[in-house]
């Protein structure tokens, strides 16, 4: 989990950086969930883009951004879901996207 990268990409995409009290969890079956103070959503935590679920949302966002088309074209989607290379491919994508967006906003 890369906290700083998760926060940066969440804000870049215009999503809610959830604000919740880790001590006030709602136990649902075997999962610990929280209610976000900002969006009032029922959440499991903040985005961690190395996880497949959060990553797929990031990938969809990038795919829909005109100005990120060139960046997106450098990656083969199949690598992200690959059992062996998936985690490192997702890490690589998130890290490079972070660097690119930071260089553009500088
Ligand atoms: Zn939220």
Keywords:
single chain, 106 residues, mainly alpha, 5 helices, 48% helix, globular, binds zinc ion
How is this structure best described in words?
It is built from 5 helices and 3 strands; from the N terminus they run αβββαααα. Helix 1 (3-12) packs across helix 5. The protein is mainly α. Strands 1-2-3 form a 3-stranded antiparallel sheet, with no helix packed on it. The mean pLDDT is 92. The chain has one domain. The chain is globular, with a radius of gyration of 15 Å. 48% of the residues lie in helices and 9% in strands. It binds zinc ion (ZN). The site of zinc ion (ZN) has 6 residues, from loops.
How would you summarize what this structure contains?
With 106 residues, the chain is mainly alpha-helical.
Draw up the topology in text.
Layout: H1 3-12, E1 26-28, E2 31-35, E3 42-43, H2 52-63, H3 69-73, H4 77-80, H5 86-105
Helix pairs in contact: 1-5
Zinc ion is lined by residues 16, 18, 36, 38-39, 41.
């Amino acid at each position: 989990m890369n906290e700083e990268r998760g926060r940066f990409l969440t804000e870049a995409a215009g999503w809610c950086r959830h604000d919740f009290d880790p001590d006030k969890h709602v136990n649902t079956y075997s999962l610990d969930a929280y209610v976000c103070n900002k969006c009032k959503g029922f959440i499991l935590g903040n985005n961690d883009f190395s996880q497949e679920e959060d990553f797929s949302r990031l990938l969809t966002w990038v795919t829909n951004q005109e100005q990120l088309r060139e960046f997106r074209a450098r990656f083969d989607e199949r690598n992200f879901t690959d059992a062996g290379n998936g985690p490192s491919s997702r890490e690589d994508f998130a890290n490079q996207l972070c660097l690119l967006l930071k260089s553009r906003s500088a």
